[in-house]
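Sequence, C-alpha cells reproduced for absentees:
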Amino acid sequence: MAADNSCKKVAMLESDFTLALSKSDPDFLATNLVTLKCNFYRQVSTSTLETEELDRIKSFLRNWLPVFNRRTAKWYQHEDLQDLLAIQIHSWKKTMQSEGCSFAIFETAGSHHFSTLSFEIACDLLKIKKVFLTHTAFTNRLIPMVQQGEYANRERMIGKFSDYELTAEFLNMDSERWKRRTSLVDRQEQSQLSFYISMTLKFFKKNAYRILSKMKNLEREFTLDDWIENQYGYTLIEEIFINFQQIKALRFLRKLEKGSAESSNNGTEMFGKKSSIDLFLVYASFQPEASSFPLGGFFTSHFKLIMSLRSKFPNSIIYYREHPHIKRRRLKYNGSRVGLHRSKLYYENLRRLGCIFLNNQSHLSLLSRPGIKLNVVSICVYVAIERALQGKNTFIAGTPWYLGMPGTQSLSDFLALAPCVPHQSEIDIDSVRRWILNFHYQSSIAQPKWSYTLENVPTAEYERDLKNLIRIIISK
C-alpha cells in the first residue's frame, strides 16, 4: 500500500525560521513540520526514562566527545551533562515517533552543538533520514545533503529548491573576486612585537563587555545551566588564561616556521632524491566545527591525520601550512576554544612527527620550485576547488560536499591503498567546471544572514527555498 503523503512530516529544531513561519504561514507549519524545542532539564521528567534506555542513549553520546571537549570547560561534569542530554534525546525520540516523522532537517552542515547532536541521535534511534543544509563559503549558499546513518553515507539531495544558477564567470580565476576570496597566501608577516600587541588588543576588544560584566564574580562557578545556554562555561580568569595560552602557542608556531624556513632553504638537494609520493603538503583548516567534526571523521584531529601519513610513509617529507586566519582572526572572533584548540603541545606533537612548518615566504618558495610534485591534503573548500581548476589533485580528509568532484580523492581510500598508490590521471578542467555548475543548478538554498555572533536572521528568499525543500521531501 502506498504511503499517505498527507501524514508524513518533517522534524526541525525550533529556530528563527520556524518562529517566522509560525507567523507568516501557520497552516504550512502545522501540516508539514514538527518543531522540537530545546527543553533540556527544564520540562523533561526523569521518571519517563528507564535506566537501561538512558545507558543505551549515552553509548551514542560517547561518539561525540569532540563536542564535549570543545563546548564545556570542566571535564569532570561531562557525565552529568550526558544524563541531561540523554533525557532530551529520549523526549524528542518519542515526539517524532508519535508524529510519524520520516525526515529531519538540520540547519547546519553537521552536528557540532549539544542541541543538534541530541537531535541527530534521536533521528538515528528511529532510523530517520537526515537532511543537512551544508553551507559553502565558496558560493555562500546552502547545499541540502541527505544522510542515512553515518556521515560517509551522505549525498546531494536532488530537486529544484530555487532558481539559482552558478555562472561560468563565477569560476573565472583571473577575476578580482577570485583573487580576493580564494588566496591561499597570508598577508605580510607581522613583526613579533606587533603580533603580540595585535592579538592582545583583539582579545580585549572582543571580550571587553564580558570582562566588565564578570568583574564582580571573578571566581564564580558556572553551572550546567550556563553550559547549555552559553556553551562556554568559563570564569573571567579562565578566559584570560586560555587566550594567553593561545598567544603562547602562536608564538611557538612562529618559531617553528622560522626554523623550518631556514632549514629548508639549505636542503634543496633533497628533492631530487625523493619520489612524488614522498612529499606531502597539509593545509590545516581554520573553522573546524562541522567541517572537521563530524565531517572530518577520523581526521578530525590534524595530529591523527599527520600520524596516519607518517605511519604509511615513514620516510616522507610532510609540510604543514597553518591556516592564515589562525593568526588574523583567532582571538577576534573565537575568544574561547571554538574549533580546533591550537596549543603549544599541539604544535610540539606535530614537530615530533617530523612536520616542516611553512610561513608565508617558505610556502611560496615551496610552490615555486620547478619540477616538484606535492601530494596536497586538506578539507578546505578553496584549496580543493582552486587546485582542481588548475588541473591538480587534492586528497580530502573527511566527507565534505565537494568530495567526488574531479580532482578530489578520499584520503582514507588513498591510505588504504598505500604504499601501492595508482598513478593519478590528468584532470579535465572543463569537467571540473561542469561538475561545480551542475552541483549548484537550482539545487542550493539561499543562506540566512549570518554573523560571527551566531545570530541567524532568516530572509524571505531562505524561507521560500526551505519551504520548497520541505514540499519535495513530503512528496517523496
User: Anything to note?
Assistant: The chain has a mean pLDDT of 77. The chain has 19 helices and 13 strands. The radius of gyration is 24 Å. The CA atoms of residues 135 and 460 lie 18 Å apart.
